[in-house]
Amino acid sequence: MIILESQLGSMEYQFNADIIINSITHWQIELAKSMSTRLDDVKAFVRDCSNGTFPLKDPAQLAFNDFVQVVPSNYYDSLVKSLLLIIPNDVAGAQKSPFGWEHFARRIPQIPTLHPDSVEYLRSGLILAILDVIVRVSSRFNESMIKKDTHTLFVKHAFSFLKTASLKRLAMDHEAKMFEKITARWAIILGDLSVVNSTEILRQVFSVIDLTQKQRTPDEIVLILSSVRYIFTRPSAEESPEVIRLIRELVNHYEKTKKAVVKLAVVQCLEKIVQPIDFTSSDRLEAWESQLFRKLAELYDTLTKWGNTSEDMKAATTRVRVAILANSTYEYFQPTMTTLLVELLSKPKPKSFVFHAILQILRGRFFLDTKDTALSKLLDTFSPVEAYGYMPRPVGEESQQTVADRVRYISEQLFIKRKERVPTDSVDIVVAILLQMAAQSLEVTLQLLTYLMTNKSIENAENCYLGLRAVRTIIDPDTGFLSNAVCSRNDPRFPELINGIPYEFDGHLVALLQFCDTVAGISVLGISGRLIEPGQTKSDDSAAATIAAVTKAASGRASVGSVLNGNSSMSNKIEQMYARGETDLIAMLSESMETMNMRNSMSFTATDSFWNAGPAAETKKILEKDLSNEKIDEQNVIVFEAISDWYVKCGQPKSNVKKFAFSSTLEIGTPSISQPVPIDRIGKERIDLVVILLLFKEIIRMLPFIPQPELVFGKLFTGPYLLHSHLELAQETSISLEKTFVKYPEMRIEIIKAILDLIKHTSLSDISYATIMLHLTALIRHWSKDYQAHLKIFDPDQITRLSCKLDACLLIMMARPNPRIRHASLSALSEFYTISQAVLPHPNEPGFLPLQAILDQRASYLSKNAMYAFMERDLLGHKITPKVIGQITLLPLSTIASSDYSYAFKFYLGELARQFSLSGRPKALRHCAKFLTSLAVPYMTSVTTVDSEFVITYSNYMVLMMALAGVPLKSEDGYTLDSYSEADHLLFNNFRHFLSPILNSENTWEIRAIVQASYFIHISLYQLYVVHLWQWYAETRQNSIAELNPRMIDNILYAIRSLSQNRDFEIIAREPSVFQSSIIEIIVDFIRMTQITLQNLDFRSETGILRTKLAINFASVSARLAYSVFTAQRFILDEQDVYIDGVSRPSMFLDITFPGLGWDPQPRQSALLLLKDLTTAVESSVGTDLTVPKMAHYQRILIDKIGVATEMLLVLGDVFDGDALPADLLLWLSKLQRSGFNVYPPPLLYNYENALGTVLAYSYSLAGNTSGFLSAVFNQV
Question: A GO term (biological process) for this protein (predicted)?
Answer without folding.
Answer: cell morphogenesis
